[in-house]
Fold this sequence. Notes:
Belongs to the fatty acid desaturase type 1 family. The chain is mostly helical.
Amino acid sequence: MAPREIVKQNEISVSGVLNENDVETVDGGLKTQAKGIAKRRHLKLVWRNIILFAYLHFAAVYGLWLMFFSAKWATGIFAMVFYSMSGLGITAGAHRLWAHKAYKAKWPLRLILMIFNTIAFQDCAIHWSRDHRVHHKYSETDADPHNATRGFFFSHIGWLLCRKHPDVIAAGKKLDISDLENDPILAFQRKYYLILMPIFCFILPTVMPVYLWGETWGNAWFVATMFRYCFILNVTWCVNSAAHKWGDKPYDQNINPVENMGVAIFALGEGFHNYHHVFPWDYKTAELGNYRMNFTTAFIDFFAKIGWAYDLKTVSKDIIKKRAERTGDGSHLLWGYGDTDQNQDEKEMIPIINKKDD
Ligand code: ST9
Ligand code: ZN
Ligand code: ZN
């Protein structure tokens, strides 16, 4: 882990880039970057959330058991489809489109993403994106809602079980979120969230399996609703916890976010978190556009083909290379045999068994 310095009391220091306007060096960085650390703090617990999340996790474990030993196969498949739809509502919607403006979308796609996002119930997209912008610009300081220097548990779920640090709110108020507030689809979602969210996240996925293929109420509730919702929450939270902890730092070793392939697969391509914190405006949230590891990129590329997604932002190979060379930890492009940075001597030293002469 990179050495951390203590930020001064009551000072909210910028510790990351949020968009291209923040950039101060040719390779996309800041000239001086505050290092974050959690100051000692008395947490004000929110018991309502503690109780509801405890129920959700017990219900989800029961749901997992029912999925294998009681539910119809159609219910399990339905839960996976709902998982993917809600996942895209977070990754392609709240994250890449709304929080980062990494591409633009015509209204039909924005409407689809708003509905998918509501299935995910991670609070309305305006609030999600506001908190996420704060996370990038004040990353791993007390102003970061899920400051990972406060520990794995806090960055995973703990931050939702207590009141926010005042710095989070103060930092958020400095950010411009007028683009989000001026989007009529997002304003509609925020206004009617307490009606829309229960319908899309809880009622529909419970009622549909019962009426469409005769599932029991219990199986529908615990498998398609509780397990599916709890699982996607934990996958999302892993981006804040595991992907700020375990993995390589090919682009910037001075920050904690890492490249974590396990998270990338479950989070539909959102595990390349070292890259993402260095270049947050890239619509792929990764250097490589491998669709198997990054389903969200495939989704956006599909909609770009039919013209509903456009102005896709990315980063030139040259800038990525410059940045990886200046601040990376040397693990860049170490994917396997024959990588670009493997020289002839290294290649020849590797024993190859059952080699065919070409
Ligand atoms: C959930 C969210 O789980 C998960 C987000 C994860 C983010 C992940 C990012 C990773 C990268 C992307 C990868 C995606 C991968 C996805 C993979 C999928 C396959 N700026 O919040 P309140 C002000 S949600 C400015 O109540 P408290 C504002 O006036 C789960 N101002 O603070 C606000 O009023 P309003 C379901 C701000 O009282 C007021 O303060 N949801 C800011 O401290 C009060 O705000 C829940 O469980 C700001 N940043 O309470 C609910 N923030 O909002 C959980 C606040 O109306 N939340 N203000 O404008 C809560 O219960 C509460 O927020 C709390 C804090 C107890 C945590
Ligand atoms: Zn992060
Ligand atoms: Zn982000």
